[in-house]
Structure formats: structure tokens, C-alpha cells
Amino acid sequence: MRVKLIQVTQNPIDVMWTAARTCYSAVSPIDMWENIYPKNIGLLDDDTEIKEIQEKHWNLVKKVLDSGHQSIAETVVFTFSIEGVSRSLTHQLVRHRLACYSQQSQRYVNFKDKTFEYVTPDTIKKNVGAEVIYNEFMRKCKEYYDKLIDIGIPAEDARYVLPNAACTNINMTVNLRELIHICNLRLCTRAQKEIRELFKLIKQEVMSVDERLGNLLLPSCEVHGVCFEDKCCGRKPKFEELIKEKQ
Predict the structure, then answer these.
(1) 186 is an active site residue
(2) Catalytic residue among 159, 177, 186, 235
(3) pLDDT digits (tens, 9 = 90+) for 74-123
(4) Which of 2, 74, 149, 224: CA 20 to 30 A from 140?
């Protein structure tokens, strides 16, 4: 599995700050943006003034986000290229509908002369007998796929024998608000391990751009201090238990 952030909104904190200030200012957002920094800023060797302004912008953005007004986070957009994940994972991923996806097609890509790559869950890797059975099944799937292609079956129909474990590539474009929501769910220890590992890598990519944005990507329990899952890992108290204690 590999993940790369290939595009992100430039100056994301300033963009969110402008969105937030627009709601409470008589100044037009165009004038606000064009005068966001003094005209002579950056001409001096000392960039203290720039840092002070940027810190001021972040403080307002964080205050607005913490207050529950999340719409400003929709102004920041990321595009991630994701490689070598299972189609089982992408079936889960595309259920997050407030995002845009472009996935490698098994209909138009012919895999006959390509190495068949697939994902093996850790539970199977740790069981020698299970791994033997699993690998043999994967080999057979590819063998039957190749045979169907050889006898003239189009790739769009031969693909029906390929399993959910088959590797695929996908691009995902998503705004920060939705990404925060997805991470609330998928960074949870109750999420399936493969998709949890994916969002750990996605968080690392965001951290490489701006640690403040990356630190917004947390499992739900770290945000709310309680667990809303039916089966709790125990890291935080269950919501139902806290309610019973207060009754």
C-alpha cells in the first residue's frame, strides 16, 4: 500500500480564515484576501510579522472549528493517489459519498499478462494452513481469469472471477470536513485493519503539509472522550456507561 498527497488547497489556513471572517466582517472577501498580509511583508529578513499573522489566523480557525462550525473546513480540498489496496477496501471507501473517486477499472484493464497482486489479511498470514489455502485460491482465480481471456472472453466479463482481495489503485478527492469525519470512523480500532492503515498513511501525508491540519484527523473517541461503538476497545469509556452513571 502506498499513498501520496498530489494536490491540496494552497494556504489552507488563510483560506479558512477568510471564510470565517467573511461571516462577521463588513469588508468584502476579495478585499480581505488581497490585503491578508501587508504589502511590504516578506521584504524584511525577519519573518516574525508573517508568523504572528499566521498564528492569529490559525487561532480563529481552530476556535471556529472547535465551536462546531465546520463549513469553513469544506474550503480546503485534498487529492490522494492510493496504490495497492484491495477492492474490499475500496468498496468500503467509496461509501463515503462526499468525495470524488477515480478507480482503476477491471473492465478496461486487461490483467492477463500482469502479475496478479492481492492483499492477504494478517489473520491469514499468521496461520500457515490458512495462508496455503488462501494463496492456492488466489492462484486459481488468476489461472481461470487468464483462461477466459485466452478463449476470447472480454476482460469486463472475465473479471467476475477475480476476488475482493485483488489489488487496485484509486484517486480520492475530499474536503477537510469530510476527511475529518472519515478519520473519526476509520482510525477507530474497530475499523478493519487495512482501511485503518490507509488512513494512518493519509494522516501522515496531511501532517507533511501542515501538522495543525493533520492533528485534526482523529478517531471519534479522541474527539469526544467517549466511545460510541457497540463493541468498545476500552481506550475510552462507553457512552452508554457514562449515561448510566449520571442517572
Answers:
(1) yes
(2) 186
(3) 999 999 999 999 999 999 999 999 999 999 999 999 999 999 999 999 99
(4) 2
